[in-house]
Amino acid sequence: MFNNKVEALVNLYTVDNGELKILLFKKNDEPFKGYWMLPSNLILNKETVTECADATIKEKLGIEDVYTETGTVFSKIERIPDTRIIGISVIAVIDTVKLNVDLEDNEEYSWFSVDSIPKTIYDHGEIIGMTTEMFKNKLLNTKYLKKFFPSDFTMPELQKLFEQLLSKKIDRRNFR
């Protein structure tokens, strides 16, 4: 019997003061009330993974025209107890200039450094970790840097981001 569902799990990244951050929503009901989760939706039969991610971002944040690409598939049988849902992570990138969602803490959502993720529901912590590692490797590609910094940036901002991604300090004189 085929009764599987597939969801798009949006990993929306931005850079704030040189630090890579991800957007999470607070769960307001049980189970896992008060824990954090990725924005997600079940994929409809008439849409692709990235179309579902784009619709999720627009629905939850009112943001359109965000760069997205498919990440990794998460298909453990028991990733969500009592139901079979296959998850596909989506990497979404937005720069803080274009971002119209306040970066300050909000009751419903908040931006977290990828180095300090709070308690999350189900396997969202694992999904964030794996997707962020994949994304860190891709970030060395200038295509992504242009998404975060479309017009200008400072060298200290860029250096701080690279230090976070590489998990090591870089001498300022050698960074250029």
Could you walk me through the main structural features you see in this protein, from its secondary elements to its overall organization?
This protein is α+β, with helices and mostly antiparallel strands. It is built from five helices and seven strands, in the order E-E-E-E-H-E-E-E-H-H-H-H. Strands 1, 2, 3, 4, 5, 6 and 7 form a seven-stranded mixed β-sheet that branches. The longest helix is centred in the C-terminal third of the chain and has 16 residues, at 124-139. The chain is globular and about 55 Å long. The model has no long low-confidence stretch (mean pLDDT 87).
* Spatial shape: globular
- SSE pattern, N- to C-terminal: EEEEHEEEHHHH
Major sheet characteristics: 7 strands, mixed
Class by SSE composition: alpha+beta
Q: What fraction, in percent, of the residue positions are helical?
A: 25-40%
